[in-house]
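Risk register update: the risk of archive-format incompatibility is retired. Evidence:
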Amino acid sequence: MNSSKEPELHHILGLDPTSSDAETPASAGSSDVLVSGMTCSHCVASVTEELSGIEGVEGVSVDLNAGGTSRVTIRTSGPVDAAAVATAVQQAGYRLAASPS
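Archived output:
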């Protein structure tokens, strides 16, 4: 993972950006991430499928903003690795966008 993106990734997943451990998991509950590039229901299905394959993910919902930045809510039963979330989004063919202000 690009080290310049680590603090941003930690922030959008509710992690401590001062932690030296890049593998620090997000806690149980839900986290919102912003994803760029999704344009249709097939895009939503691809991202949902990849994220649902992560251990600890109980559900995924997407608020699609076709051609813009979509909000993805990830519901978890326990810790989820932030890097796994980023990898899943990339494997679906998309990228994480800047965190919400």
